[in-house]
Design brief:
Length: 705
């Protein structure tokens, strides 16, 4: 079995296995249920460490930009829906963050005292949904995991929440469901418009010595899909040769035999329909492709494309089944489409073909798809004006679920925009860049002012999340690789990396801030900022942890909130100086509401609220969780590259670079053509052209008057 298939599946579904085990434990065995849940979340984190850092076959390679540890198994073959997963520099840090925050949130769940069994089962199902979203590379599978999260979170808020839990849970459910429906519509649009036959034609047509914008072997299409297309890949990644069958001999299965030899050569036996490859030691995949294409008989039935790496010389034999040659219309366009949910293939279709360029209501299909997906994802971010579910959900949710909400769930919106919206629908991303950036800045400013106005401690932290996630939206949307900037993607790359770092840093600091609020709430059962004060003297360790975590949220240098915000603000300068100035100024507002809250809660006058006699120092469990979060906030702040940025650098650099090339080669020529059409005469010369000067004279005369 493919080790990636086994290990990644275990990471995702281990919580489900634990939930099934818990289902058989009697409900009165509270401690047993809690420890099984804690062991499961700890095992997921340990497994992530083993898979990505301790196992030679699946170690995460920071030098690789493409997907790693991929596997693709047919799930619903009738519709080419695949169980397809993998990680790259965008998803890997978020997978680790999910496992980390889930473990700490599980530790924080000891304060939950009712319906423990149901709570733990739902908690574990939620973790599976979150991990699945970050690893899924099939759009249908991604949507399934996205929906899997919805119900556990609804019940976790609605059953274990505060006084207005039903209202908050329904509001969360309806908002998220609205986003899901918009996403589903976009999925249908892209699925039925997409066509892998067209992508294959484009791939065959691209020159071998070009930049190879379509990297077929990296799409990891399933065997059934490749069989429909008449394609077979020998090897993986750069160490692979892609064989694309021609219509000649398509009715018969093609046998390919590989064997070591003194030289690299290809022979074709037309009688048996057998292609024999001899590979010299360390033969390059590109050399093998050249040998196949250089053999007249072989080139008559197959086209070969090779990577830059070495192809294995081990003896092997593969069979390419007979395939149906697609029917084409008068323009050579395939009539029978091969649709796909493969996210990487959809991205290649969006950037390198015109299948998503059909016009709907004056805009291209991918423009509308981008808009629908974008709205769906910013509900989860959340961004103004679809943010109103967040403060209610945070306030009413129990502390561990608030940690999950702030630490992981909000990041799924940013991840979806980065993984799906921009690569698949670049036309929409380019045309709406100002909308994206403006919403980011508005969210930053609005969230900060709203936090300033709050009297509820937890609601203040919730609005701070709206403000901080605005940096994420701004950093992702700064498409500065335009003609005016010579298509240089450096600053956009900086913005996206800043946005990603902000998601990781905020995942740590916001989870910590909610945990700190939860500690004091568990003692005094209120969150009124006006009634707090003087906690420093009564809870010194707790106060020290809270100070550190709130300063991390503030963006103080040497803490995790600083690097992401600075990278985003720097990147915006080349896009818009005004937005850069406004986003930099938000730091003052952030400092205002956080410092004011710290002063009122920890340094202010004596505590004036109820249950003052219940204010006791934080216990060992609370200290362990709080100090762990604080240590990582410091670690990310002083070693940002070694701990976070180096894992995402290659992937984000390639994505922004690819989209910068797309801007230069596809978008800008279209914009230039439209500009020329606007300035060109609209009325062709006619037989009565002699009348036109008179009309011009009349208009001109009127204007002069």
């Amino acid at each position: 079995m493919d080790p990636a298939l086994l290990l990644l599946s275990l990471i995702v579904f281990l919580p489900v296995i634990a939930a099934i085990v818990i289902a058989f434990i009697p409900a009165n065995q509270v401690d047993g249920i809690r420890y099984v849940t804690l062991a499961a979340t700890a095992a997921v984190l340990a497994l992530c460490g083993f898979v990505f850092f301790g196992n030679q076959g699946t170690n995460y390679d920071i030098a690789q930009a493409q997907m790693q540890d991929t596997f693709n198994v047919g799930w619903i073959p009738s519709f080419d829906i695949e169980y397809y997963m993998g990680v790259d520099g965008i998803s890997f840090p978020l997978v680790m963050l999910t496992a980390f925050v889930s473990l700490l949130a599980c530790g924080a769940s000891w304060s939950i005292t009712k319906y423990i069994k149901g709570y733990c089962i739902l908690f574990l199902l939620l973790e599976t949904g979150m991990l699945g979203v970050f690893m899924a590379l099939d759009f249908f599978l991604f949507y399934v995991f996205w929906e899997v999260m919805l119900l556990p979170m609804y019940f976790l808020i609605g059953v274990w929440g505060g006084p207005r839990k039903e209202y908050a849970a329904i509001k969360f459910f309806l908002y998220t469901l609205l986003g899901s429906v918009l996403m589903l519509i976009a999925i249908l649009m892209l699925y039925f418009a997409g066509d892998l036959q067209t992508l294959k034609d484009q791939y065959v047509a691209q020159a071998d010595d070009a930049e190879r914008p379509i990297r077929w072997s990296e799409l990891n299409l399933g065997d059934a899909v490749n069989a429909k297309l008449g394609v077979k890949t020998l090897g993986r990644g750069d160490n692979s040769v892609v064989l694309i069958r021609k219509s000649e001999g398509a009715a018969r299965a093609l046998e390919v035999k590989v064997a070591p030899g003194d030289v690299t050569a290809a022979n074709f036996d037309a009688t048996g329909n057998v292609l024999s490859l001899m590979l010299a030691k360390d033969a390059k995949a590109a050399d093998v492709a050249t040998a196949i294409n250089g053999n007249a008989a072989a080139a008559n039935i197959v086209v070969a494309k090779g990577g830059d790496g070495s192809l294995s010389t081990a003896e092997q034999a593969v069979s390419l089944p007979a395939f149906k040659v697609p029917t084409r219309d008068a323009n050579g366009v395939p009539v029978e489409k091969v649709h796909t949910f493969n996210l990487l293939a959809l991205a290649a279709l969006g950037q390198h073909t015109k299948v998503f360029d059909g016009v709907i209501l004056g805009r291209s299909l991918q423009w509308w798809a981008f808009l629908l997906l974008f709205i769906g994802f910013i509900i989860k971010v959340p961004s103004v004006p679809v943010h109103t579910w967040l403060p209610d959900a945070h306030v009413e949710a129990p502390t561990p679920i608030s940690m999950i909400l702030a630490g992981v769930l909000l990041k799924m919106g940013g991840y979806g925009i980065l993984r799906i919206c921009y690569p698949i629908c670049p036309h929409g991303g380019y045309d709406l860049m100002w909308v994206v950036c403006s919403l980011g800045v508005i969210s930053m400013v609005y969230g900060a002012f709203a936090a300033l106005a709050q009297k509820d401690f937890k609601r203040m932290v919730a609005y701070s999340s709206v403000s901080h996630m605005g940096y994420v939206l701004l950093g992702i949307g700064v498409w500065s690789a335009t003609k005016g900037n010579a298509y240089v993607a450096d600053y956009w790359n900086m913005g996206v990396q800043g946005a990603m770092f902000q998601m990781i840093g905020h995942g740590v600091s916001s989870a910590g801030m909610f945990f700190m609020v939860g500690i004091i709430y568990d003692r005094v059962h209120h969150r009124n900022l006006e009634e707090f004060g003087g906690l420093f003297g009564k809870m010194p360790v707790y106060t020290a942890m809270a100070m550190g975590l709130f300063f991390a949220g503030l963006g103080l240098p040497a803490l995790c909130g600083f690097i992401g915000e600075v990278l985003v603000v720097l990147s915006v300068w080349k896009f818009s100086m005004l937005l850069a100035v406004v986003s930099a100024a938000v730091v003052i507002l952030t400092a205002a509401y956080i410092l004011w809250a710290l002063q009122r809660v920890y340094l202010g006058a004596e505590y004036k609220g109820p249950h003052g006699d219940h204010i006791t120092p934080s216990n060992g469990r609370e200290n362990l969780i709080g100090i762990t979060l604080l240590l990582f906030a410091i670690l990310f702040g002083i070693m940002p590259y070694q701990t976070v940025l180096k894992y995402m650098d290659k992937t984000i650099t390639r994505q922004t670079s690819d989209l910068a090339k797309w801007t230069r080669d596809v978008k800008q020529p279209e914009l230039t053509l439209k500009e020329q059409e606007k300035t060109a005469p609209t009325t062709p010369p006619t037989a009565n052209a002699a009348l036109q000067p008179a009309a011009v004279e009349v208009v001109s005369s009127g204007s002069d008057q």
